[in-house]
Design a protein that fits this description.
about 230 residues, Uracil-DNA Glycosylase, subunit E, four-stranded parallel beta sheet, two-stranded antiparallel sheet, 6 strands, globular
Length: about 230
């Protein structure tokens, strides 16, 4: 079982100084106990431990340009890889990610897009400063939202609050109600907020398609003199 106060993937990260109070507090052991309980009951938990904090690993605090907040990891075998909306290479695109790629192609019809070329592994975004953060970092197999309200939320709140105070002019992308609950933690006078419906097939046709979030992000980054994301 992982040590409550030393998530090894984060020890050398510039995130850890700001997030360590969570890992040394009461919520993190609750998460670990829940995961351990599921594993002892022979329930698979995704993503694997080595990828649980991948969003923070690939996007250091000092490099955050934009933030996408997802709900929880994909709950099928081999799908989740620690980045919101992302899947491992060779895995069939989930419906939400497929819709994201449709909108992306609509916005950039004449360009070769890195994320699509990488078969859905969005590390190509994360390494450029796009923090892909789920509101729960784990999930049980075939049980969406199974690890919501088990102790991850304070970590996500802490991460967003840290970006709010330690960074400037970050673009927050809040798709759907689950992501929009974090809006009160963001100072709109300092940062930019893009709100909209979730790219899920249940809602994408109610305003996600045609919303142009990716070109909007890059326009805002360009205005700030920051390098653009190569989607």
């Amino acid at each position: 079982m992982e040590s409550p106060n030393s998530p090894s993937q984060l020890l050398d990260s510039d995130w850890f100084i700001h997030l360590r109070t969570y890992f040394e507090g009461p919520d993190y052991p609750k998460v670990l106990n829940r995961i351990q309980s599921d594993l002892q009951a022979n329930i698979s938990v995704y993503p694997p431990l080595g990828q649980r904090y991948r969003a923070f690993e690939l996007t250091p605090l000092s490099r955050v340009k934009c933030v996408f907040i997802g709900q929880d990891p994909y709950h099928g075998s081999g799908q989740a890889n620690g980045l919101a909306f992302s899947v491992n290479k060779g895995v069939k695109l989930p419906p939400s990610l497929n819709n994201i790629f449709k909108e992306l192609q609509h916005e950039y019809p004449n360009q070769t897009l890195k994320a699509i070329a990488s078969e859905g592994d969005l590390c190509v975004w994360a390494e450029q400063g796009a923090l892909l953060l789920n509101s729960a970092l784990t999930v049980c197999e075939s049980a969406p939202m199974s690890h919501q309200n088990c102790g991850w939320e304070p970590l996500i709140q802490k991460a967003i609050s840290t970006i709010n105070t330690q960074c400037s002019s970050v673009v927050f992308v809040l798709w759907g109600k689950s992501a929009q609950q974090y809006k009160p933690l963001i100072d709109a006078k300092i940062h930019h907020i893009i709100e909209g419906v979730h790219p899920s097939p249940l809602s994408a046709h109610r305003g996600f398609f045609g919303s142009k979030p990716f070109t909007t992000i890059n326009k805002l980054l360009k205005k700030q003199g920051k390098s653009l994301i190569e989607w």
